[in-house]
Amino acid sequence: MKKEKTSINLMFTVMLLAIFALSAIFVAMMGARVYSTGAESMKENYDTRTSLGYLSEKVRSKNGDSINVIEVAGSQALSIREDYTTDGYSYETIIFVYDGKLREVMVSKDSESAKPDFEAANAPSIMELGKLGLDESEKGITMTVTTADGLTESAYISWRTT
Q: How far apart are CA 103 and CA 118, in angstroms?
């Protein structure tokens, strides 16, 4: 009788330990899934908000007369003209998306009608981004960024008046 109680107690203890171990593994797996989902969400938010913040600051630093929407490599691009009085040249900063990356290049602009001369693939990349949409109006510009995963965010910036 005493031996049966001992083996029942041992089986109960082993079963209890097994249930505890399985519960601990299940909780750890659930925690890992929650963490990875949160990390992915944070990365997507980082991509959209950082790119919009970058574009917004570029637009805010200039007035509306020096900003245009142009086409580069088959998609919309933000063109920001900068005139330097020290050397008498005009330069154009062009921000665009090419090959899944937000890119920026500064090129010399000799005449108002001249198309910028550069290779889109050779422009330095800033960060990953799926698509850039620009809608210029009389009072400002709406910028829409889309990540490679399809998450979209927009921002409207009013032109700075001088």
A: 12
Averaged pLDDT score across all residues of the chain? 86
Residue 23, SS3 per DSSP: helix
Structure tokens at 10: 């041992």
Would you say 118 and 98 are in contact if contact means Cβ atoms under 8 Å apart? no
Which one-letter DSSP state was computed for residue 66?
A: G
Quick one: residue 78, left, alpha or beta (phi over 0 = left, psi -120 to 50 = alpha)? beta
pTM: 0.73
Q: Are strands 125-128 and 131-136 parallel, antiparallel or unpaired?
A: unpaired
Distance CA 61, CA 59 (A): 5
- Across the chain, where does the E strand assignment appear? 67-72, 75-84, 89-98, 101-109, 125-128, 131-136, 140-146, 152-158
Q: How many C-beta atoms lie closer than 10 Å to residue 55's C-beta?
A: 21
Mean pLDDT, to the nearest integer, of 22-41? 92
The two tokens of residue 149 are 């995963």
Domain range annotation of the chain: 43-158
Q: Residues 94-108: pLDDT tens digits? A: 999 999 999 999 888
